[in-house]
Amino acid sequence: MCGIVGYVGKKQAAGILLDGLRKLEYRGYDSAGIAVRNGAENAQVVKTSGKLQALIEKTENGRNICGTCGIGHTRWATHGVPSVANAHPHVSGNCAGTGNGPVESSVVGVHNGIIENYAELKAKLMSKGYSFYSETDTEVLVKLVDYYYNKYRIGPIDAINRTMVRARGSYALALMFTDYPNQIYAARKDSPLIIGKGDGESFLASDVPAILKHTRRVYYIQNHQSARIEADSITFFDLNGDEISLPEATIEWDSQSAERGGYEHFMLKEIHEQGMAVRNTFASMVRNQAIHLEECGLTQNVLNGISHIDVVACGSAWHVGVTSQYVIESLTDIPVRVELASEFRYRNIPMNKGTFVIVISQSGETADTLAALRKAKESGVPVLAVVNVVGSSIAREADYVLYTMAGPEISVATTKAYSAQLMAMDLFAIQLSYSRGFITEEKYKYYIEEASRLPQKIEQILKNKEKLQWFSSRISSQTSMFFIGRGLDYSICLEGSLKMKEISYIHSEAYAAGELKHGTISLIEDGTVVVGVMTESSVLEKTFSNMIECKARGARLIALTSEEHPVSDDGEVDFQISVPASDEIFLPSLAVIPLQLLSYYTSVNRGLDVDKPRNLAKSVTVE
Ligand code: G6P
């Protein structure tokens, strides 16, 4: 995780770097720092612990640092506690811990990723006379570059290449060398990094939102490649140090979408953008009442070859996988297994001819999901990626890509990307089912029609959010909550519960309703809130009975149903929420909206930082 930025041009760099870091704060926010050079002068390094705001205040929003070339970093701690000493940028010299002020080091750098063999490299450097002021792997990396740079006098690119050969792990690295003013050097392996070309200025960043308001022209630097970035030119190199050319790409995202646009939090804004995210995803896959998968290479032949599907993902994307398992298995006779990427990558999973792997990822950079994709590819099975970020590692490495059209998602807790993923997976399931002859053309058209109505129904739910806002004020002091449901409803419970715990810090568990009696019910006590998700009519009564069992033990009940099948209002339930009727395979797309709002308002009521919950980061590029 962590976010890195860089700027070189004619403008003052510090303000641009801080603004870029603000857009990347979702990637990590336990400390931050910038290094800025004014021409050939030494770099000024300023670092603070805590959120970016501390750095903004310390630098008077960048006004008290002069220079037109610089790099910056917002950190999610891996090696070493969050502190000023461990904050980036790191320098090749000794900087007495705080690292604030001008530094005389030959190399100064920022890094996103993890260096796995840092201990071994550190020992080697110590034997060569280096000493260390921080606990980070990044300081080791910067000093290793410095070591090669000074030992061989070979120039920045060769020093970086030698470092890349020695360092194991993942990195997006941005460096400045004292001998090379007005230049930034960058290198990458398995951590995201884009390089932006403006008019007489150049940028680098971990993610698009950081540079979107400056330029749309970008280069996606690949693994083991490096770059020399100057105001008027960007030059790329391979691991041999030979110059290479990379294609320029254009970012299509609207720059407003990376701004809060009047909403108090990105999460609330993104919750409200869900109608659009789902609509755009639908429109990208459906034309003339037909789903077009062949455009991403999923031809009839490919679909015919599928005999079994593994869906692999992390976090909320994994919850989408759980929902799609129910949907695909209800529309076809193709067995689906849903795996956590962090488990899949280390387990012996039989993958045979006919196995088809689907990885789901908003960022396209999640380390475990990327590793799972590579494992599947090594086994020779085809991989479809459902991804939001164009040009991301997962999108580049998969055989087939279905892009979700959610636009940039900034809040750590995913909402609109999740909804767009549900839509993409629903449409995939419908097409698979139809093309394999499991449903009639009439049914196929019916499902597409039902899917097309979801955006408007989502917007309708959002219009009635006051009731949820009110109710959330009544549960804000809870210490424990349970979300129970069966089938598709259980998959929504997983997401509702995760949303609640990650942003409100209320302990919360999702349980398949029928499992409650096997242990968990012992945790129900007076006042515990139990949310029953009951949109599936065939199991509604069963889940409702489980809720009543909880009520008998003192629980307060929230029922989430469809308008078509509400639970009888005879006082058993404390609060009932209904979502518009739809074919039941699509109800997860609607039922999740009130649960997102409930979590959002609960977090706000508890006075928490909704967009940046403690200990989390949006894009998890470490194991
Ligand atoms: C983090 C985010 C989640 C996300 C998960 C997977 O934990 O906070 O919202 O679902 O990573 O991320 P991905 O980018 O692969 O969808």
List the helices and strands and how they pair.
Layout: E1 3-8, H1 13-24, E2 31-37, E3 44-49, H2 52-58, E4 69-75, E5 90-91, E6 101-102, E7 107-115, H3 118-127, H4 137-152, H5 156-166, E8 169-177, E9 184-189, E10 194-197, E11 202-205, E12 217-220, E13 225-229, E14 234-237, E15 243-244, E16 249-250, H6 266-272, H7 274-285, E17 286-287, E18 290-291, H8 300-304, E19 308-313, H9 315-331, E20 336-340, H10 341-344, E21 355-361, H11 367-378, E22 383-387, H12 393-397, E23 400-403, H13 416-435, H14 441-452, H15 454-463, H16 466-475, E24 480-485, H17 488-504, E25 507-512, E26 529-534, H18 537-551, E27 556-562, E28 575-579, H19 587-605
Parallel strand pairs: 19-20, 19-21, 21-22, 22-23, 24-25, 24-26, 26-27, 27-28
Antiparallel strand pairs: 1-4, 1-11, 2-3, 2-4, 3-6, 5-7, 7-8, 8-9, 9-13, 10-11, 10-12, 12-16, 13-14, 14-15, 17-18
Helix pairs in contact: 3-4, 4-5, 7-13, 7-15, 9-13, 9-17, 13-14, 15-19, 16-19, 17-19
Characterization of the model:
- This protein has 623 residues and is of the alpha/beta class.
- It has three domains: 3-252, Glutamine Phosphoribosylpyrophosphate, subunit 1, domain 1 (4-Layer Sandwich); 256-452, Rossmann fold, CATH 3.40.50.10490; 463-623, Glucose-6-phosphate isomerase like protein, domain 1 (Rossmann fold, 3-Layer(aba) Sandwich), CATH 3.40.50.
- Helices cover 35% and strands 22% of the residues.
- Helix 11 (367-378) links the parallel strand 21 (355-361) and strand 22.
- Helix 9 runs antiparallel to helix 17 (488-504) and helix 17 packs parallel to helix 19 (587-605).
- The protein is globular, with a radius of gyration of 25 Å.
- 6-O-phosphono-alpha-D-glucopyranose (G6P) binds at residues 314-317, 361-363, 366, 369, 412, 414, 616, 618-620.
